[in-house]
Amino acid sequence: MTLSLESAPAPILAIETSCDETAVAIVAGRRVLSNVVASQIAAHQDYGGVVPEVASRQHLLLINACLAQALEEAQTDWADIGAVAATVAPGLVGALMVGVTAAKTLALCRRKPFLGVHHLEGHIYASYLSEPTLEPPFLCLLVSGGHTSLIRVEACGVYRQLGATRDDAAGEAFDKGARLLGLSYPGGPAIDRAAQGGNPRAFAFPEGRISLPGGGYHPYDSSFSGLKTALLRRVKALQEAGDPLPVADLAASFQDAIARALTQKTLRCAQDHGLKTLAVGGGVAANSALRARLRDACQEAGIQVYFPSLKFCTDNAAMIACAAAAHFERGERSSLELGVQSRLSLEATPSLYG
Ligand code: KG4
Ligand code: ZN
After folding, report:
1. Gap between the Cα atoms of 53 and 55, Å rounded
2. Whole-model pTM above 0.90?
């Protein structure tokens, strides 16, 4: 069956391969027609983290099956597809290349426009999938394996970074913390699960703060390396004393320190900038303690907070398709000459089009 699409936005097929998920989705406007994610967790688990060469190989092995499944689930054929999109930056270069090469090849063969998408813009657009009425301006707290950013969203493609991490990203802190506690990769979900039975006040962990040259602290920037060191020291001290590790209490206290720091900086930023709406995105947006703390604090401050549903927090292609759909509707297209980039600031998003 082919969908009737009169007056509906043309579906966009998007591919996401920036890290360790091979993902393909088809989205019409803000409506998800299919969302296929092939996780590579098993392939990387023995190494305790993502191995770039293994990721590229896995993407190659999985991409065709993901494409076929996304088209099948959306019950859409190529005649209906308006454009083909792929994450072009930032990410692992070899991994990005697989998705971008597949997308460009399909765009050429099927005679469709191609759109390159900034991965972080995708995480911002994940909020539109769960809350289609969301409109800028709003503040986005973007917390993933590679980023911890506070972003003022002005319009499609118009972003201003107000805060960032000075060292580890929040997801990286979870992953490293989990390793210290002997928990499995990826660390965020493992700490979240272990913390369920623990006491978040059992151990006092520091809130990372960035000193300013003139005195005081940076109001929005984060730092998580001190927290990781504090956990390492505490684990060593407990091990040297011959005590069994109170993993649940350590996980709950560590998780709460991250949630507390992020909540405090986010609220301050929203209030200072007069923003009454907050959208949270990225894998760490799935964290139960962060969701609970932000919900309570926003309610108290009269700020409307939106979290994507869990499947749109971690990497997926539906969020990439949703961002591409917004650019496509504005008449923007990318050149087939557009290359992948391991780093690219979110503010540079407009450079991907025209
Ligand atoms: O957004 P994402 O899937 O990939 C990147 O763009 O980095 O985020 C992955 C990160 C990992 O560090 C993972 O440990 C973390 O998100 N994560 C979580 C949870 N689920 C995933 N961190 C804390 N709590 C969770 N429930
Ligand atoms: Zn991501």
Report:
1. 5
2. yes
| Residues 95 and 112 occupy one common structural domain | yes
Beta bridge pairs of residue 163: 150
Mean per-residue pLDDT over the chain, rounded: 94
Q: What percent of the chain has pLDDT over 90?
A: 87
Task: Decide: helix, strand or coil at residue 115.
Answer: strand
**Interatomic CA distance for residues 215 and 295, integer angstroms:** 31
| CA distances to 32, 133, 285 from 307, in Å | 17, 13, 7
User: Which amino acid residue places its CA nearest to atom 3 of ligand 1?
Assistant: 314
**Together in a domain, 40 and 92:** yes
Q: Is 186 in the pocket of ligand 1 (CB under 6 A)?
A: yes
On whether residue 103 sits in a domain, the answer given is yes
**Within a domain: 212:** yes
Q: How far is the CA of 255 from the centre of ligand 1 (A)?
A: 13
Question: Is residue 166 domain-shared with residue 240, that is, in the same domain?
Answer: yes
Nearest CA to ligand 1 atom 8: 283
Contacts of 208 (CB under 8 A, 6+ apart): 222, 223, 224, 225, 226, 227, 261
The answer to the question of residue 3 being in a domain is no
